Amino acid sequence: PFAVPLRWFAAFDPTERILAEEGNSATIRYRTRVRDAVQRLRRAVEVLDGAGFDESVVDQVSELLAWVDGFAGEAVLELDYGGVAGLFSSAELAIDESAAEVTASLDALEEEDYEVAGEHYADAASRWAHAQSLAYVN
Q1: Burial class (CB in 10 A: 0-12, 13-18, 19+), 28
Q2: Are 26 and 10 within 8 A, CB to CB?
Q3: Mean pLDDT along residues 72-86
Q4: What is the mean pLDDT of the chain?
Q5: DSSP class of residue 55?
Q6: Is the model's pLDDT at 138 over the cut of 60?
Q7: Of 63, 6, 42, 115, nearest to 50 (Cα)?
Q8: Which terminal residue of the chain, N or C, has fewer Cβ atoms less than 10 Å from its own Cβ?
Q9: b/e code 69-104 from CB counts within 10 Å (16+ = b)
Q10: Which residue has the higher pLDDT, 84 or 98?
Q11: Maximum pairwise Cα distance, the chain
């Protein structure tokens, strides 16, 4: 089991969320053009750096940016929950707005509203806490 790293959501606009039914279960996909993802990730790096985040945090987003930027701008980038969707109920997936929460957190950081930024990030992080914890189960 794994979780989607929250920084990956910074590449997507919340409107690019696709809630799909696959068999008896639901899943989520985000799809965007690489050029749009690169633009969003550059902004995320600038916002995090400008807010004074530790270099290790900024570097993780910068590495993702460098990887995505290696693809053609017209290519499509997809984040698919795949098997990890099985860790959530259909109801939980229906209300999962992880990209919206990450975007709202970055927006608030840009406005120097650190309390609101923390609240939005905490909402996304708490949604993924159980899935992330499974990576450490022996």
Answers
A1: buried
A2: no
A3: 93
A4: 92
A5: H
A6: no
A7: 42
A8: C
A9: eeeeeeeebebebeebbebbeeeebeebbbbbbbbb
A10: 98
A11: 45
- Specify the amino acid at residue 26: A
d(CA 8, CA 24): 27
What amino acid occupies position 12? F
Tallying the residues shown for the chain, one arrives at: 138
Q: Which tokens hold the place of 64?
A: 């993702």
Q: What is the pLDDT of residues 21-57, one digit of tens each?
A: 887 889 999 999 999 999 999 999 999 999 999 999 9
Q: Cβ neighbours of residue 55 under 8 Å, at least 6 residues apart?
A: none
Give pTM, 2 decimals: 0.91
For the packed helices 98-110 and 114-134, what is the interaxial angle rounded to 10 degrees? 150
